[in-house]
Amino acid sequence: MAEPMTRAISAGMVPDKSPLRIAVYADLDLLGDALLKLPLLRALRQALPAAEIIWIAGKGPSAFAGPLAPLTEGLLDAVIEHCGTGAELRLALGPRPLDLLIDTQSTARTALALRRLGARRFVTAAAWGLPGAPPQFAPRAPHHLVHRLLALLKRAIGSVPQTATGLRLPADIEAHAADLLPIGPAYVAQVLGAGGRHKVWPEGRHIELAHALLAHGRTPVLILGPDEQGRHAPLAAALPGARFPLQQAGTAPPILTIALARRCRAAVAADCGGGHMMAAADIPLVSLFGPTDPGKFAPWAPVTRILRAQDFPGEGMLAIPVAAVQDALREIERASANAGESA
């Protein structure tokens, strides 16, 4: 096995003592995909703080160069998009060779093309489809995407740090979030939407939860996505004590949603991009799942409680009762408080 990258300079991998040059390849990164890959970037930067880290989206755009670009400050030094795996990518990378190339996709043909770039160390999720890697000796890849990516990182650098570099948000975004959710109330975020109606926890359940939170001294912060914009007025009428910060702001960029989440004690969300934004804010999260698989898609939050519709009597997401969500919120708040005391 190759030496960990943390020993690479002493091992002679970089003879001129210049910073390690590392690239991570993905086919493309739309918003949800990129949010799931943030833990990889945070862990990589934590492990190798002085390295030059380049993100490559070979088959299209990357949210790291678009709506999530502000989150990459301190994590990435460059993002290359729409570059393929051949001559255009070589030109974009420049003459200095890569010390490490991590390929997160699993197609052997693409991996073979990337290996020809000549990185000093090449690690790929498609390793067992390449010559010289007998399938019978291949460990089964972890089911969850983040676990899979962190296992790939461990193969690349020899270890994965226990803690990860935090996200930096622009000061003006943090200030805007503070104006929208000032210090004082104990906020709990509720993300109402999801990518498909079959994944949504019913609005009536959210209203019932919000009333229960208000009764126990919490202030619900309702995060409404594009599909819920028309529900703002009736929800505000039903919940006069709740906050609707994105409607107050007038715009809803992902980084503002993450900044708002940071001001909350906890969050509740279904399987959706908003849930991954809550996780990126490093707050405790109750994650609600029905038809999709939490073993593969659960958000990567420091304290998470997953509730599956299949574990309750009833049909679909409606089966998840408000009382179970309340219990889960209390559980994760206690766990978060205990973790803070022991840190």
Q: What name goes with the CATH superfamily of the largest domain?
A: Glycogen Phosphorylase B
Kindly report the spatial arrangement of strands forming the biggest sheet.
3-2-1-4-5
Order of helices and strands: EHEEHEHEHHEHEHHHEHEHEH
Gyration radius, to the nearest Å?
A: 22 Å
CATH architecture assignment name of the largest domain: 3-Layer(aba) Sandwich
Uncertain runs are 1-15, 134-138
Q: Which CATH top level class of the largest domain fits? A: Alpha Beta
Total domains: 2
The separation of the N and C termini measures 34 Å
Strand content: 5-15%
- CATH fold descriptor of the largest domain: Rossmann fold
Shape: elongated
Helix count, DSSP H or I runs of 4 or more residues: 12
Helical content stands at: 25-40%
Secondary-structure-based class equals: alpha/beta
Strand runs, count: 10
The main pleated sheet reads as:
5 strands, parallel
Name the average pLDDT: 88
Please explain how this structure is put together.
The chain is α/β, with parallel strands linked by helices and 343 residues long. It has two domains: 5-157, Rossmann fold (3-Layer(aba) Sandwich), CATH 3.40.50; 171-342, Rossmann fold (3-Layer(aba) Sandwich). 35% of the residues lie in helices and 15% in strands. It contains twelve helices and ten strands. It has helices spanning 31-47, 87-93, 108-115, 145-157, 171-180, 203-215, 232-238, 245-249, 254-261, 273-280, 294-297, 322-342; strands at 21-26, 52-57, 78-81, 100-103, 122-124, 186-191, 218-223, 266-270, 285-289, 304-308. The strands form two sheets. The protein has a five-stranded parallel β-sheet, with helices on both faces. The protein has a five-stranded parallel β-sheet with strand order 7-6-8-9-10, with helices on both faces. β6 (186-191), α6 (203-215) and β7 (218-223) form a beta-alpha-beta unit. α1 packs parallel to α4, α1 packs parallel to α10 (273-280) and α5 (171-180) packs across α9. The longest helix has 21 residues, at 322-342. The protein is elongated, with a radius of gyration of 22 Å. Mean pLDDT is 88; it is low at 1-15 and 134-138.
